[in-house]
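Batch manifest, entry 17 of 40.
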Amino acid sequence: MTRNSQIIYGLLGAILLSALAWGFYASIEFYDEKVRAKWSKQALYNPYLAAEQFLQKSELEVIEADSLIKLSSFEDVSTMLITNANQIGNPRQLDAVLDWIESGGSLIVTANSFSTSDDLLLQKFEVDVTWPETDDEEDEPEKSVSDSLREYNEKIEEGMSAEEIAESTKREVPLTEINFTGGIGVLKIAFNANRILTHPYIDDEEADTETKPFSWSSSTNGVHLIQFDVGEGLLTIVSDPSIWQSRKIDQHDHAYLLWVLSSTDGMFAFLRSTNRESIWSLISSNAIELIISLSFFILLWLWYMGHRFGRIVPLYNTRQRALSEHFSATASYLWHRKASKHLLQPLRQQVFRRAHIAIPEFSRADQQQRLTLIAEHCQIDRETVSDILQASDFNDSGFVRTVKLLKQIEQSL
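Output type: structure tokens
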């Protein structure tokens, strides 16, 4: 094969491989598919995780705490978000927070969800929370399940997706417009319409109040944001903290409002109630070896207890024990458990019965005199008689000797 023919065959092979590769590539179908992933464990335990990550990407240092006690120092904190005003639980904590605001701190606090009677901060600034009554006449009549399904199927047939149907059936939330100066403009926020803030100065500017807000923003339902100047700092009270939770922070201008209210200097502190993991979750994630060891221990214990209380001898045993063997086994059992007193009891009782008959003065004498009468009658040392009739602890030889002496005394009486 000449050199030219090798080149031609090489080119043909390259063309054939290229054609096969192009055909394989053309047969592949490319498509995009969106998969809704579940929330991570960290996001489930921290509803403000998206807000924290947003601030971190805005080059702000973010810290977390579940109480003012654990926030040891306010010196490096320039902005603080308290998701529940009940975090300020006593006057000492209230004074510390007010001193921090007066020195230039910016505090964002949300009103209590149920009551402001024990909310020290809101009482200090005369802010209250009300729950407006909804107008029942404007409510749409409830649809039956069959009508709702029929309407849903009609929209599916029209080509609408499930997300579009959910968006079309969602009720419009009245937006609160917050106007900021300095080129920021108007921000639109979807606060919870079922909870509004009130202050005497907002309703009547001539009201006699110790605190006067310089700014407030409201929707058609009422006021949802109030701001106070406190020394060199700023206090912002909002009616609904959920606008900055992970499910809502991407809506409208919620994230931008949080950035506007935060200071560019210092750290941003989140004070929120922490959702704790259960003890089972902590053990399963950090001490799986302990669970395995306990499982083996329980299995071994069950095996041991089952063997201990199970049947060791056959259910039916035709062999019968002789009466002498029974007495011997009973005596051995009592002897090994140091119960020799029970073995000698019948012999001692027999000696006392014979003494009542043989010695006239025996029935009228006390215990010590009875021992003396038995010793004199049988011509045995009194200490020996006392030992064999009252002692309870014997060794093997002493027990045999005691039995012999008791039989000897019985025969002498």
